[in-house]
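Hey,
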Amino acid sequence: MARGSNGVTLQQLHYFIEVAAEGSISAAADVLYVSQPTMSAAMKDLETRVGRALLLRSARGVTLTADGAEFLGYARQVTEQVELLEQRYLGRPPSRRLLGVSAQHYSFVVDAFVRMVKGSGAVEYEFSLRETRTWDIIEDVRTLRSELGILYRNDFNRNVVDKLLRDSGLAFRPLFLAEPHIFISRKNPLASRDRVTLADLADVPRLTFDQGANNSFYFAEEILSTLSSKQEIRVSDRATIFNLMIGLDGYTISTGIISDDLDPEIVAIPLEVDERIEIGWIGHSVIPLTEQAQRYLAELRAVVAGFGVALLG
């Protein structure tokens, strides 16, 4: 078994990465077809070799300590480099490409995901894309269910979101600033307007994404979430919200970036408000991104730049 100078084996690194991803030693053992006692012993031996606690164990599973999160970043880098070496010099086939992304409901996130998958060139891959609630995005990334999260912040929710991210060991990295737009059906009477005001929307059904048990104003996907509306409908997915835009002439507020290929019946009209929407990605503060995650972010920036939006990072 190959060992580094500190006696850590590549197998232990693979085991540790899987334990972190599953949040459970027994679940990781099942995935890798080893016994639970073997996996547990391997993790205890790994912690002994590195001289620090990497995992916090509880009845609900395991979570990473601060040292564990940092160690995971290095473990991923080492195993990726070994895989590249084996592919180049030993003729090994490429490993399955893996990436998990959790995001608020944005079509540009899907556009970039499609481009990443098509451009991966991998014969085998296992990706996941979860459009979900704001709180769940943060939880997905905190627990490593997803490597990246995509969400927005503005002056209203910034302090609350940033504190929650800090408490979770995560960081927000800006991607771009967007001017607020409304999304409506092409058949909506407002679709012919160059711009709309809040007064224009007074009698139009407002459509928002439900935030579940954490239905805080600060977790809303839409700006101006505290403003009252005569008619409001909460939905849980993007297909439904678009169907209600068409069926009820409803609207939602978003970035203005929408794909004609994926959503041909919906248009974006600028909304006259003194607000900006800052879109960014979240990840662990001390865990470097995998190459696959970096490829996804590159595709995301390319998609957004294609709409003439200025990038921030």
